[in-house]
Amino acid sequence: MGYLKRNLGMPRERLRDQVAHALRAALISGELRPGQVYSAPGLAEDFGISATPVREAMLDLAREGLVEPVRNKGFRVTEVDEGDLDQYTEIRLLIEVPMIGRITRGAAREDLEALRPVAEEIVRAARDHDLIGYLDADRQFHLSLLALGGNARLVETVGDLRKRSRLYGLTGLDERDQLVPSAEEHIELLDLMLAGDAEGAEKCITRHLGHVRSLWAEPGDE
After folding, report:
1. Domains of the chain by residue range
2. Which of 34, 57, 93, 178 could be disulfide-bonded to 173 (CB atoms 3.0-4.6 Å)?
């Protein structure tokens, strides 16, 4: 995996954000395990940096609900149960499906087409087993697409839901080549939207979110 075993080597003012990004990736991939407690000094040793920016980054993740402080020990990775995942998916469906239809009917063609390189990068990253690239491109695509609707609070809400409903065991899914079909749905969605097929786009995003939910249910350590 290797999200933690690297020296970030970033300027101090950016280090906190870089560490937080790497920790999110480690959480999503399953490198940091739900229910386990991790200390800032221990993680800092993995990164090859001081403990302060790691502690600051973990506090950022705590505010997002991804970890919780454990007195005199560090931070415990929060556990998300099946009920939580079902509720997060239901909220996303309620928000994203009608918004995708609205964007399909009103967005400028050039704004949609501008997202094609990102959709292609998702597929390329999935095929190359580049989980960091996959996660970055997937987030960029979904949030940039929703941003075309002009509602910044909606984008913020979906971004928060994505963090809280992280994909456990992403590495295991990658090893079984189950990420590529989900990745290809981004291009399918974009093509439908460019064709002006609002109903088809709504069905596609519904299927995609359902597909993602089924991935969440897969054990990551088989």
Report:
1. 12-77, 82-216
2. 178
Q: What is the CATH number of domain 12-77?
A: 1.10.10.10
pTM value surpassing 0.90: no
The burial of 13, by beta-carbon neighbours within 10 Å (0-12 exposed, 13-18 middle, 19 or more buried), is given as: exposed
Contact call for residues 67 and 58 (beta carbons, < 8 A): yes
Rounded CA separation 194/46 (Å): 45
CB 18 within 8 A of CB 8: yes
The whole-number pLDDT of residue 34 equals 85
Fold of 82-216: Four Helix Bundle (Hemerythrin (Met), subunit A) (1.20.120)
Structure tokens at 20: 């937080």
Q: How many CA atoms lie within 13 A of 143 on its CB side?
A: 17
What DSSP string runs through the chain?
--SSSS-----HHHHHHHHHHHHHHHHHHTSSPTT-EE-HHHHHHHHTS-HHHHHHHHHHHHHTTSEEEETTTEEEEPP--HHHHHHHHHHHHHHHHHHHHHHHHHS-HHHHHTTHHHHHHHHHHHHTT-HHHHHHHHHHHHHHHHHTTS-HHHHHHHHHHHHHT--TTHHHHHHTT-HHHHHHHHHHHHHHHHTT-HHHHHHHHHHHHHHHHHHHTS-TT-
